UniProtKB/TrEMBL annotation:
Residues 309-355 form the DUF1731 domain. Keywords: Signal. This is NAD-dependent epimerase/dehydratase domain-containing protein. Residues 1-27 form the signal peptide. Residues 58-275 form the NAD-dependent epimerase/dehydratase domain.
């Protein structure tokens, strides 16, 4: 990868089904706790030497499905957040000042000031790939990830020593590994040879250009994120409620998933715990076949799950992108388990039941 001590020999690709779905509707955010409302954020650099120390975290993609929940988590723990955005008006609508007073919103011209005043940076940005892949769209999908990551890395590297963030958590995805019905993948597995694997190799390569002598780098290869406010379930649950839910294609493809709360906890632990470094798969320890996932979802919402969505229908809508859903991948979080990360929802049935309680 070109940078000394780079952890990421293989960049990550996006998780499968989640990445083929449209942007989720805006989530209903719970306001932060009273502790999170004290003071405003701007550009203070704080140490993370100890479990009770306060962090200032700059986040790209903060208005997205995962980012919104991460912001809530940080504020609830009395940390401070700088939202790095291309649209201040959108960020303000997601995080209104009346209830989210521990936040600074920074448009691109001010990203460097926020980053240089932060303890840590989390990079979650990237254009959704839930559309037919024309050559122009494929170029934009790649560039949206690489360009933002490059910009963030440059700001971190150009910061003076005492103002430089000490941690950089950059999200990638399990699409890095390619697809397979028979193989299992962990953090040591080689990259695939399809378009998404190519995107992720370049995406991670840019993240690896951060100065790793001074900055701890964590690369999270994220699977399909389950939660009630967006991601895969935001599209699947309405189909099941209309008695039209079922597996996509054969249903035998692997579904490597993680509950939204577990992913946010994994990001949070990556910020706080110096043992977390290099590539970590952001998936639950028990992936399932897509047919089992759909069957369990049907039970939870009290609807049948026998009507499959045929391959020809998916290909008509998604074109080349349908291959990610139709083939799938079994990705295991070996590193997270070695680090002792504790999952709230290690089994998909428990994750679905928890989500259904809030529907």
């Amino acid at each position: 990868m070109g940078s000394r001590g780079c952890f990421c020999k293989r960049p990550a690709a996006m998780g499968n089904l989640l990445l083929l779905l449209p942007h989720p509707a805006k989530a209903k955010l719970r306001p932060p706790t009273a502790a999170a409302k004290r003071g405003t954020l701007f550009f203070c650099s704080l140490s993370t030497d100890g479990p009770s120390s306060t962090m200032t975290v700059s986040i790209t993609g903060a208005t997205g499905f995962v980012g919104r929940r991460l912001v809530q988590k940080l504020l609830s723990e009395d940390h401070k957040v700088c939202v790095l955005t291309r649209s201040a008006s959108k960020a303000t609508s997601v995080f209104p000042a009346s209830t989210f007073t521990g936040i600074t919103i920074a448009e691109q011209g001010d990203w460097d000031k926020c980053i240089q005043g932060s303890t840590a940076v989390v990079n979650l940005a990237g254009m959704p790939i839930s559309t037919r892949w024309s050559p122009e769209i494929k170029k934009e999908i790649k560039e949206s990830r690489i360009n933002v990551t490059s910009k963030v890395v440059n700001y971190i590297n150009n910061a003076s020593g005492d103002a430089r963030p000490s941690v950089f958590v950059s999200a990638t995805a399990i699409g890095f590994y390619g697809t397979s019905e028979i193989s299992s993948f962990d953090e040591s597995s080689p990259s695939g040879n399809d378009y998404l694997a190519e995107v992720c190799r370049e995406w991670e390569a840019r993240a690896c250009q951060v100065n790793q002598e001074d900055v701890r780098l964590v690369l999270l290869r994220i699977g399909v994120v389950l939660g009630k406010d967006g991601g895969a379930l935001a599209k699947m649950i309405p189909l099941f409620m209309m008695f039209a839910g079922g597996p996509l294609g054969t249903g035998r493809q692997w579904f490597s998933w993680i509950h939204q709360d577990d992913l946010v906890d994994l990001i949070y632990e990556s910020l706080k715990n110096p043992s977390y470094k290099g590539v970590i798969n952001g998936t639950a320890p028990n992936p399932v076949r897509l047919s089992e996932m759909c069957e369990r979802l049907g039970r939870v919402v009290g609807r049948p799950s026998w009507l499959p969505v045929p391959e020809i229908a998916l290909k008509a809508v998604l074109g080349e992108g349908a291959s990610v859903v139709l083939e799938g991948q079994k990705v295991l979080p070996v590193k997270a388990k070695q680090l002792g990360f504790s999952y709230r929802y290690p089994y998909v049935q428990d994750a679905l039941r928890a989500i259904a309680r809030d529907l």
